[in-house]
Write the structure tokens for this entry.
Amino acid sequence: MKDQLLPNAEWLAVIAVSGIVGTAAMTLFMYGMTFITDKVMKVTKILGTMITCQTTDDRGLSESKTAIFTGIVAHYIIGIAFVFCYHILWFLGVGQPDFLNGLILGLASGMIAVMFWFTFFAVHPFPPDVDLKSYLLTLFLAHFVFALTAVWAYVFFAAQL
């Protein structure tokens, strides 16, 4: 399947598309949970607001195009980076792209994300007002959606090579 640690252009395309598909599914899940729970869980807007330090005076999410664009781009780059890490693990013989490993990667990715976000909120000078406990729990679950969807996309697009 893969003959080199650093993937060629075709494999980079598989990794990138899989990361984008997984991130899109996760983002949809988070926005759906925002709608269902009426809590702030708009991951790309939260990320963009915090990266650009544009939290509103009332601790709300920024509506600036810069913050929103930054959040979207950062979120998708992170998703692609996660799939790149998955690819490297599989290349090294650690697991394989299947359902069980998707669950394991969802667990690991979710734990990494929770640690990142908890730390990001703790060190940020003016984070938006977010119910952190609910956000982190939902974000953890969303990483199962991400990983399973990304693994499915990886298998699907790898089969096209």
Remarks:
- The CA atoms of residues 70 and 83 lie 20 Å apart.
